[in-house]
Design a protein that fits this description.
By secondary structure, the chain is of the alpha+beta class. It has two domains: 119 residues, Phosphorylase Kinase, domain 1, CATH 3.30.200; 179 residues, Transferase(Phosphotransferase), domain 1. It contains eleven helices and nine strands. It has a five-stranded antiparallel sheet with strand order 1-2-3-5-4. Strands 6-9 form a two-stranded antiparallel sheet. Strands 7-8 form a two-stranded antiparallel ribbon. Helix 5 packs antiparallel against helix 7. The protein is globular and about 60 Å long. The two termini are 30 Å apart. Keywords: ATP-binding, Kinase, Nucleotide-binding, Serine/threonine-protein kinase, Transferase. GO terms for molecular function: ATP binding; cAMP-dependent protein kinase activity. This is cAMP-dependent protein kinase.
Length: 377
Amino acid sequence: MTSMEGVVQGTDMDNHAATKQHQQQIYNTGKPNLKENDSQVLTKKISRHSDKDTTTKGKYTLNDFQILRTLGTGSFGRVHLTRSVHNGRFYAMKVLKKERVVNMKQVEHTNDERKMLKLSQHPFIIRMWGTFQDCHNLFMIMDYIEGGELFSLLRKSQRFPTPVAKFYAAEVFLAIEYLHNLDIIYRDLKPENILLDKNGHIKLTDFGFAKEVTDVTYTLCGTPDYIAPEVVATKPYNKSVDWWSFGILIFEMLTGYTPFYDPTPMKTYENILNGTITYPDYLPPDILDLLQKLIVKDLTQRLGNLQGGSDDVKNHPWFKEVIWERLLSRDIETPYEPPITSGIGDTSQFDRYPEDKDLDYGISDVADPYGELFQDF
């Protein structure tokens, strides 16, 4: 099993954060999660972004970058630390093998990821600079976020003090609120998909399951511990699934484990559908109130899905001392600054992976049976 494949490991709440094998390392090149149900055909709604430029191809080629080392591996390929031969800056190059994407029925998700990243410009969301392809691979060029995953920090800490959890939750909230205002559902919120920049601010990454949805969708996808019950039950759902996952994320940051975890994914789904949570005694009343209003099966009661929308979450008493304008401008001191040297391509916060000596990158003189499926790359 690679570091990005399989289901969550661990057997109890004391060692869960330390032993959990995260499926999707860094900028995520693998989806060990549930796949798209291709039989679901939805009525296509007119995109509110149809007048926006979502072009990402034609700006870069492989020759523009020097590949330095692997940052993560997965089912579809790997992520490399690269350096621009023009400006000397470091970038993350996500490489997906077309054949594997097609065989695992992830074409739509992959194309959606490219488009959603292009549309998203926010201080707490990773920036994608461009894409290109060759006969075998798809390439995505993104900022290199050198501080590592929030998951790694949580694993070392076991659980976060309330002010620390609140800081990260507030920054994640602003990213999710922004995406929802663009009619984008994220659908894979978890500590593994939250990176820390050099100053300790968050960057939401991995948009492999992000999708523009103007009303509802039916796709069964996500990571078991964080999936909302309406998704598990294959019911139509909307942005409310992100608020459920937001609640799970806060719970995990404060306790070190997820509330419905079981070593067997099917049992995890049963726990989610059952909806019974045992909250630790040390959680204060205000956070208990917030979690019970986010991790609730009844969509008519789930915070974020009510008439007040995301403002109901933002205005909850647990967030009362957050100065949202200063937070958005990154004008609030972070609780943790990663121990890295900026500007040199420091990779100390990422695991080492065996390098592939036989990379098939840059090949353009052979047949490409999948090129037409990824025309916007």
